[in-house]
Every structure is written in C-alpha cells, then in structure tokens.
Amino acid sequence: MSFPTDQLQHQRLKQGINFQIETPVPLEWNRYTLRLPGRSDGDQPLRIIHLTDLHAGPEWLEGYDAILAAVRESKPDLILFTGDFVDKRAHFPDAAVTARRFFNQLSAGLGVWAVLGNHDPVELGDMLGDWGVQHLRQRHVVIDAGARKIELIGLPGNSREDLSYEFLESLSPQSPRHADHVRIVLAHFPDLIDAAAELKPDIFLAGHTHGGQICLPGRIPILRHAMLARKLCSGVHRHRDAWLVVNRGIGFTGVSLRLFCPSEVIELLI
After folding, report:
1. How far apart are the C-alpha atoms of 124 and 29, rounded to whole Å?
2. Closest to 209 (Cα-Cα) out of 227, 186, 196, 195
3. What is the pLDDT of residues 84-122, one digit of tens each?
4. What proportions of the chain, in percent to the nearest 5, are helix, strand and coil?
5. Domain containing 71: what range?
6. Which of 96, 169, 203, 253 has the most crowded CB, counting CB atoms within 10 A?
C-alpha cells in the first residue's frame, strides 16, 4: 500500500539540544499531522499527546514542571503513554511517588491511557487508576470521539514474551474494522509491530529505544534497543502498512545523559 507524502506533515514546535545531563529539558516537541480514515477536510483534528519513558526516580526534577505546563497548554484530547513510568525497580516505592505526582497533573478530554514498560514492576499496573491513568494491558477499548471512533489496543510491556497470541487472535473477529474507526496500538517495544501486524493498526505507538539516548552526530543511534532498522528507532515512519511512531521519551536510563538525542514529546493531529 502506498501513501502520498502529503498524508504526513511534520513541524518541530520546540527545538531540543544536543547535550542533556540530569535534566529532560529543554526537550523537543514534534507535531505530526496524519491523514487517517473518517476525517473530512472541514473536521477539527483530534490532538493526541504521546509520552513515554519517564524513568522517574526518587527525586522530582525541575524540568518536569516545564513539561507538564507545555502538555497542559496544548489542550490534548487524548494522552497516550507507552511505558517505563519508573527507572530502577530497587527504588520503586519512592519512584512511584514521583511518577504519581507527574501523572496526577495530566488530563485530557478522552482520558490518559497507558501500558507498562520493561522497567515497571507488574504491581504498578494496579496503581495507575489512582494516578488518573487507565491501564490498557491486553485490552481493546473503543472511545467515542464525536464524529469518529478511536480504538485503543494495549500490548504488554514488561517483556516481549508477555505478548499473548491468544489475545491477538481474540481480536480477529473485529478485523476488518469499521472503515471510519482509527485503530491505535500502544506497545513499549517498537519491534512488536511485526507480531501485531494482523491487528491492522493505523498507528503503532512505542518507546523503549530512547532514540539511542547517546547518538552520533546526525542523531544516529549507537545502540538500537530494538530489532528494527536503525532509522526506525525514532520518529514517524511507514512500516507494516501502519504509521510507526517511536518516541525518544522523556527520561534517562543507565546514565543521566543524552547526546545528539534530546528528550521528546510527540503531538499527533489525526
């Protein structure tokens, strides 16, 4: 299936920097306008904020306040988070306090929805409701967005091996989908797009890679952290007949350093 280039438009609303240490700001804000089913030229687009990889630790970072203010100012219809709320499981109780403080300050008209990442303990999923976040682990929900319906499907993120093929098969009666529905799959690992191709998503959201976190000039990742081509480790790409959206994320892991790979918020207009 081929798509004309005018179905994807990109604007960089905030410019990131090439060297970040111990702070996620200033981060980069990238807006992508995608042409998807069910929206006519006169319709107002749906505004989705995609966040990922907070990697919260025991301490509140000053940069979080700026990120939260920018997200609130954007007035999102929907906020989607693709895992790694916390960084080290050994610091989980204190890190969970930080993550809760962050997510309690987020809201959107159609809700805040999330899947876990490989750094998140399983029990964190049971806490999300108190944070104002709806957990999508192996769930399929349909959201009424006025003229259109938005389908959200959440894949497990603690391990790639957690993906249940019984779950994928259970959705098969719902494909082919309604022509005017937009189907969005949330996963922590971007390379699960291959296993989930039968779900026929319009958009596949993921994180995990941090865009490499430490890159060569030109934002070339040294480590991919995914079984995908190097160029697919961040950004928006056409892959498996879907828009693959891989967000570099907010936080750090391993070392509190980003090089040629700034923290990121992705805004989707669909």
Report:
1. 28
2. 227
3. 999 988 889 999 999 999 999 999 999 999 999 999 999
4. 25, 30, 45
5. 20-34+43-269
6. 203
Render 101-155 in DSSP notation, one character per residue.
HHHTT---TT-EEEE--TTS-GGGGGGGGGGT-EE-BT-EEEEE-SSSEEEEEE-
Integer Cα distance of 83 and 198 in angstroms: 22
| 243 within a domain of the structure (yes/no) | yes
Q: Are 235 and 249 in contact (CB under 8 A)?
A: no
153-196 per-position pLDDT tens digit: 999 888 888 888 888 888 765 556 677 899 999 999 999 999 99
CA distances from 36 to 12, 45, 150, 167, 174 (A): 21, 10, 11, 25, 19
Q: Classify residue 46 by its DSSP letter.
A: P
First to last CA, the chain: 19
Q: Residue 117's CB: how many other CB atoms inside 10 A?
A: 26
Closest listed residue to residue 24, CA positions, set 58, 83, 90, 68 = 68
Q: Does residue 94 belong to any structural domain of this protein?
A: yes
- Say if 8 falls within a structural domain: no
Distance CA 266, CA 106 (A): 15
Distances (CA, A) of 174 to 170, 200, 233: 8, 10, 30
7 domain residue, yes or no: no
Other residues' Cβ atoms within 10 Å of the Cβ of residue 238: 13
Strand 8-14 to 19-21 pairing: unpaired
CATH code at 94? 3.60.21.10
| Residues ≥6 apart with Cβ < 8 Å to 131 | 99, 100, 103, 104
Q: What's the pTM? A: 0.94
> In total, how many domains does the chain have?
1
pLDDT of residue 7: 83
